[in-house]
Amino acid sequence: MAFSESVKWEAFKRAGGHCECCGKQLVWQNHEEGERGAWDAHHKTSVRAGGHDTLSNCKILCLDCHKNTRTYGRH
């Protein structure tokens, strides 16, 4: 499952365009790309653990912080 574009946009705005872990400035257009300011939407509670694709379960992380989560790559 994946977050809708509208959920990602609302979460990105809520985060002020910054990684919610390290505070790095992010760029909306660089979602899931390896360019400067790249980021991804992370499930706070994984889908496997019963999490949903909702705004309240969405956290915006730079790619480095996302790769360091214990659930990275799992669904």
Descriptive report:
With 75 residues, the protein is α+β, with helices and mostly antiparallel strands. Helices cover 20% and strands 13% of the residues. The chain has helices at residues 5-14, 63-67, and strands at 39-43, 58-62. Strands 1-2 form a two-stranded antiparallel ribbon. It is globular and about 30 Å long. The model has no long low-confidence stretch (mean pLDDT 91).
Write the layout of secondary structure elements.
Elements: H1 5-14, E1 39-43, E2 58-62, H2 63-67
Antiparallel strand pairs: 1-2
How many β-strand runs? Answer: 2
Rg over C-alpha atoms, rounded to the nearest angstrom? 11 Å
- How much of the residues is beta strand, in percent? 5-15%
* Largest sheet entry: 2 strands, antiparallel
Arrangement of strands in the largest sheet = 1-2
Shape: globular
Q: What labels describe this entry?
A:
75 residues, alpha+beta, two-stranded antiparallel sheet, 2 strands, globular
Task: Describe the structure in brief.
The protein has two helices and two strands. With 75 residues, it is α+β, with helices and mostly antiparallel strands.
